Protein backbone atom coordinates (compact mmCIF):
# COMPACT_ATOMS: atom_id res chain seq x y z
CA UNK A 1 0.00 0.00 0.00
CA UNK A 2 1.36 3.41 -1.02
CA UNK A 3 0.75 6.05 1.66
CA UNK A 4 2.54 8.82 -0.24
CA UNK A 5 0.53 12.00 -0.77
CA UNK A 6 0.84 13.30 -4.33
CA UNK A 7 1.78 16.92 -5.05
CA UNK A 8 -1.70 17.82 -6.30
CA UNK A 9 -3.24 16.77 -2.98
CA UNK A 10 -0.60 18.74 -1.09
CA UNK A 11 -1.29 21.80 -3.25
CA UNK A 12 -5.01 21.48 -2.54
CA UNK A 13 -4.33 21.28 1.21
CA UNK A 14 -2.13 24.40 1.03
CA UNK A 15 -4.42 26.39 -1.29
CA UNK A 16 -7.76 25.66 0.38
CA UNK A 17 -6.95 27.31 3.70
CA UNK A 18 -10.56 28.14 4.44
CA UNK A 19 -11.59 24.49 4.73
CA UNK A 20 -12.54 23.94 8.37
CA UNK A 21 -11.31 20.35 8.55
CA UNK A 22 -7.73 21.14 7.51
CA UNK A 23 -5.61 22.03 10.51
CA UNK A 24 -3.31 25.07 9.91
CA UNK A 25 -0.38 22.98 11.14
CA UNK A 26 -1.13 20.39 8.45
CA UNK A 27 -1.27 23.15 5.84
CA UNK A 28 2.12 24.45 6.94
CA UNK A 29 3.63 20.96 6.80
CA UNK A 30 2.11 20.40 3.34
CA UNK A 31 3.61 23.68 2.10
CA UNK A 32 7.01 22.73 3.52
CA UNK A 33 6.83 19.27 1.94
CA UNK A 34 5.94 20.78 -1.44
CA UNK A 35 8.91 23.13 -1.12
CA UNK A 36 11.27 20.27 -0.23
CA UNK A 37 10.04 18.21 -3.16
CA UNK A 38 10.48 21.16 -5.50
CA UNK A 39 14.01 21.76 -4.27
CA UNK A 40 14.83 18.07 -4.63
CA UNK A 41 13.55 18.22 -8.20
CA UNK A 42 15.83 21.18 -8.88
CA UNK A 43 13.21 23.94 -8.88
CA UNK A 44 14.56 27.01 -7.05
CA UNK A 45 12.45 28.37 -4.19
CA UNK A 46 11.85 31.67 -5.96
CA UNK A 47 10.47 29.83 -8.99
CA UNK A 48 8.08 27.94 -6.71
CA UNK A 49 6.94 31.28 -5.24
CA UNK A 50 6.39 32.77 -8.71
CA UNK A 51 4.41 29.70 -9.80
CA UNK A 52 2.23 29.95 -6.67
CA UNK A 53 1.75 33.70 -7.25
CA UNK A 54 0.64 32.97 -10.82
CA UNK A 55 -1.67 30.17 -9.71
CA UNK A 56 -3.31 32.40 -7.09
CA UNK A 57 -4.11 34.92 -9.84
CA UNK A 58 -5.29 32.43 -12.46
CA UNK A 59 -2.29 33.11 -14.70
CA UNK A 60 -1.37 29.41 -14.89
CA UNK A 61 -4.24 28.70 -17.32
CA UNK A 62 -2.86 27.04 -20.50
CA UNK A 63 -5.40 29.06 -22.51
CA UNK A 64 -3.36 32.20 -21.72
CA UNK A 65 -0.15 31.09 -23.50
CA UNK A 66 -0.51 33.58 -26.37
CA UNK A 67 -1.19 36.47 -23.99
CA UNK A 68 1.79 35.43 -21.88
CA UNK A 69 3.99 35.39 -24.97
CA UNK A 70 2.90 38.95 -25.79
CA UNK A 71 3.83 39.89 -22.21
CA UNK A 72 7.24 38.26 -22.73
CA UNK A 73 7.89 40.39 -25.82
CA UNK A 74 6.89 43.51 -23.84
CA UNK A 75 9.31 42.64 -21.03
CA UNK A 76 12.15 41.88 -23.47
CA UNK A 77 11.49 45.30 -25.01
CA UNK A 78 11.85 46.92 -21.58
CA UNK A 79 15.10 45.00 -21.07
CA UNK A 80 16.39 46.24 -24.43
CA UNK A 81 15.48 49.80 -23.43
CA UNK A 82 17.32 49.47 -20.11
CA UNK A 83 20.44 48.14 -21.81
CA UNK A 84 20.35 50.80 -24.53
CA UNK A 85 20.02 53.58 -21.94
CA UNK A 86 22.66 52.15 -19.62
CA UNK A 87 20.14 51.55 -16.80
CA UNK A 88 20.35 48.72 -14.28
CA UNK A 89 18.73 45.78 -16.12
CA UNK A 90 18.14 43.52 -13.09
CA UNK A 91 14.45 44.38 -12.71
CA UNK A 92 13.81 43.87 -16.42
CA UNK A 93 15.71 40.59 -16.43
CA UNK A 94 13.70 39.52 -13.37
CA UNK A 95 10.42 40.53 -15.00
CA UNK A 96 11.37 38.53 -18.09
CA UNK A 97 12.16 35.50 -15.92
CA UNK A 98 8.83 35.84 -14.11
CA UNK A 99 6.99 35.85 -17.44
CA UNK A 100 9.05 32.87 -18.69
CA UNK A 101 8.32 31.00 -15.45
CA UNK A 102 4.59 31.52 -15.91
CA UNK A 103 4.79 30.61 -19.60
CA UNK A 104 6.60 27.38 -18.71
CA UNK A 105 3.96 26.69 -16.04
CA UNK A 106 1.19 27.18 -18.60
CA UNK A 107 2.98 24.68 -20.86
CA UNK A 108 3.36 22.16 -18.01
CA UNK A 109 7.13 22.46 -17.62
CA UNK A 110 9.56 24.57 -15.59
CA UNK A 111 12.65 26.70 -16.19
CA UNK A 112 15.06 24.03 -14.95
CA UNK A 113 13.70 21.47 -17.39
CA UNK A 114 13.81 23.98 -20.27
CA UNK A 115 17.39 25.00 -19.42
CA UNK A 116 18.43 21.35 -19.25
CA UNK A 117 16.92 20.64 -22.68
CA UNK A 118 18.64 23.72 -24.16
CA UNK A 119 21.98 22.94 -22.53
CA UNK A 120 21.89 19.35 -23.76
CA UNK A 121 21.57 20.76 -27.29
CA UNK A 122 24.43 23.26 -26.99
CA UNK A 123 26.93 21.59 -24.64
CA UNK A 124 29.03 20.13 -27.46
CA UNK A 125 28.36 22.89 -29.97
CA UNK A 126 31.35 24.43 -31.67
CA UNK A 127 31.64 27.72 -33.47
CA UNK A 128 33.21 31.13 -33.31
CA UNK A 129 32.49 34.70 -32.32
CA UNK A 130 31.54 37.00 -35.20
CA UNK A 131 30.90 40.68 -34.35
CA UNK A 132 30.15 39.77 -30.75
CA UNK A 133 27.74 36.95 -31.63
CA UNK A 134 28.47 33.23 -31.30
CA UNK A 135 27.90 31.57 -34.69
CA UNK A 136 27.74 27.80 -34.45
CA UNK A 137 29.59 25.74 -37.03
CA UNK A 138 27.41 25.05 -40.05
CA UNK A 139 25.36 28.28 -39.74
CA UNK A 140 27.58 30.29 -42.11
CA UNK A 141 28.88 33.60 -40.98
Q: Which descriptors apply to this entry?
A:
single chain; two-stranded antiparallel sheet; 141 residues; globular; mainly alpha
List the topology elements:
Layout: H1 7-15, H2 24-40, H3 45-56, H4 65-84, H5 90-106, H6 111-122, E1 127-130, E2 133-136
Antiparallel strand pairs: 1-2
Task: Output the structural class.
Answer: mainly alpha
CATH class of the largest domain: Mainly Alpha
Strand proportion: 5-15%
Share in helix: 55-70%
Strand order of the largest sheet: 1-2
Global geometry: globular
CATH topology of the largest domain: Helix Hairpins
Rounded to an integer in angstroms, the radius of gyration calculated over CA atoms is 20 Å
- CATH H level of the largest domain: which superfamily? MazG-like
Discrete helix count = 6
Count up the domains. 2
- What CATH architecture label of the largest domain applies? Orthogonal Bundle
SSE pattern, N- to C-terminal: HHHHHHEE
β-strand number: 2
Low-pLDDT stretches are none
Give an overview of the whole structure.
By secondary structure, the chain is mostly helical. It folds into two domains: 1-41, no CATH class; 44-127, Orthogonal Bundle (Helix Hairpins). Helices cover 62% and strands 6% of the residues. A two-stranded antiparallel sheet has the order 1-2. Helix 1 packs across helix 2, helix 3 crosses helix 5 (90-106) and helix 4 runs antiparallel to helix 5. The model has no long low-confidence stretch (mean pLDDT 83).
Summarize the structure.
The chain is mainly alpha-helical and 141 residues long. The chain has helices at 7-15, 24-40, 45-56, 65-84, 90-106, 111-122, and strands at residues 127-130, 133-136.
Amino acid sequence: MNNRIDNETLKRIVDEGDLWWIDPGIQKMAAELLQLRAEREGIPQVEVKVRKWAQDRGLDDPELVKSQFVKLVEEVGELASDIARGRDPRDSIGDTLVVLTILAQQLDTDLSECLTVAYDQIKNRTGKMVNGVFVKDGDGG
